[in-house]
Design brief:
The structure holds two protein chains of two kinds.
Chain A: E1 2-3, H1 11-20, E2 25-30, H2 36-39, H3 42-48, E3 50-56, H4 68-79, E4 83-86, E5 92-95, E6 98-104, E7 119-124, E8 127-131, H5 137-145, E9 154-156, H6 168-174, E10 178-181, H7 194-201, E11 207-209, H8 210-213, E12 216-220, E13 225-229
Parallel strand pairs in A: 1-2, 2-3, 3-4, 8-9, 9-10, 10-11
Antiparallel strand pairs in A: 5-6, 6-7, 7-8, 12-13
Helix pairs in contact in A: 1-3, 3-4
Chain B: E1 2-8, E2 11-16, E3 19-24, E4 37-41, E5 44-47, H1 49-70
Antiparallel strand pairs in B: 1-2, 1-4, 2-3, 4-5
The chains are: A alpha/beta, B alpha+beta.
């Protein structure tokens, strides 16, 4: 399963990495939400790999994407006759001996497209992960209301560590042992926010940022987790 | 063509044929929303409502065809 792929400009790096792992088929792609920093290069992924199914969030007609990269994504899905489905809360996806359970978004209208991000719990043996795309506090609140989040070993911080994600209300429930923040080096958006780092630090000292550590690989054998940052500094 | 991809705080991230660019959100019309098609003329931005709606309608029809064809929404594996 691949979750997002970043900008078109970096898609060749993603393709190269997946190939290096010997991957020729992606059973599932979760395209968390239609912003270019999450799926700008998705058309190239679909063109390159055999893809079983692409899961996208349901977005109301009046907020549907109009971007050119989204056109290319649809072109690729049509051309490759790729199965496209909308995420449904409660859906369980089995991937080998791991299990992903979609927990958001629900059908509530959201002003911000980020809050339509597909969020899911991933379970592998004794290990658990939470990935929330760019969900901010509104979507986090919906997950909490639905009681669909649990304590996790690994939390991929929502919206690149934005100040409006990773609320105390969420952290109090998920109590992450490891937090990973995906954010560009010296990005102009101020990700991650100091306030978010402070909140996360109250729950874990194991905070890994891609702007500092580069690529972060976490491997699970169902019991233990092995984390390998490209660069060693947290 | 220039389209608003998203807002990141006070920054608007725009998609252009040449790639992604960032501008101050305050330079865009107050009502500008994500996925609006923009026109730049005489030093200022305006929203091309007709182009936005046309593109959105196209996305809607394409998605409808793709999702109906697969029709697997909510199916557990």
């Amino acid at each position: 399963m691949l979750v997002d792929c970043g900008e078109d400009a970096v898609s060749s790096r993603v393709i190269k990495y997946l190939r290096k792992l010997g991957i020729g088929k992606l059973d599932y792609i979760i395209a968390t939400h239609p912003h270019s920093d999450h799926m700008g290069g998705m058309h190239r992924i679909i063109e390159t790999f055999d893809v079983g199914e692409v899961i996208i969030p349901h977005i109301p007609d009046e907020q549907l994407p109009t971007t050119m990269f989204y056109d290319k994504f649809l072109d690729a899905c049509e051309e490759k006759k790729t199965s496209v489905t909308e995420a449904e809360v409660g859906r369980v996806i089995n991937i080998g001996d791991a299990r992903a359970e979609i927990i958001a978004p629900d059908d509530t209208y959201q002003e911000d497209i980020n809050n339509y991000s597909i969020s899911f719990m991933l379970y592998h043996g004794e290990n658990s992960f939470l990935l929330t795309g760019d969900a901010e506090y509104e979507e986090e609140a919906a997950m909490l209301k639905a009681e669909s989040v649990r304590k996790v070993n690994v939390y991929k911080a929502g919206h690149h560590g934005s100040a409006y994600s990773s609320t105390y209300d969420l952290l109090r429930v998920i109590k992450p042992e490891i937090a990973v923040i995906s954010c560009g080096k010296e990005n102009p958006y101020g990700h991650p926010a100091d306030s978010t780092i402070k909140r996360l630090s109250e729950y874990t000292q194991n905070i890994y940022r891609t702007d500092i550590c580069g690529t972060i690989v976490i491997e699970s054998d169902g019991k233990k987790l092995a984390l390998t940052p490209e660069r060693s500094t947290k | 063509m220039t389209i608003i991809d998203r807002f990141e705080g006070s920054i608007a991230v725009l998609e252009t044929a040449e790639g992604m660019i960032s501008v101050e959100r305050s330079l865009l019309p107050e009502k500008a929303a994500e996925d609006d098609v923009l026109i730049y003329s005489d030093g200022s931005w305006s929203i091309d409502t007709a182009a936005t709606e046309k593109r959105r309608s196209r996305t809607k029809n394409r998605l409808k065809r793709l999702i109906n064809k697969t029709d697997k929404r909510g199916k557990n594996d």
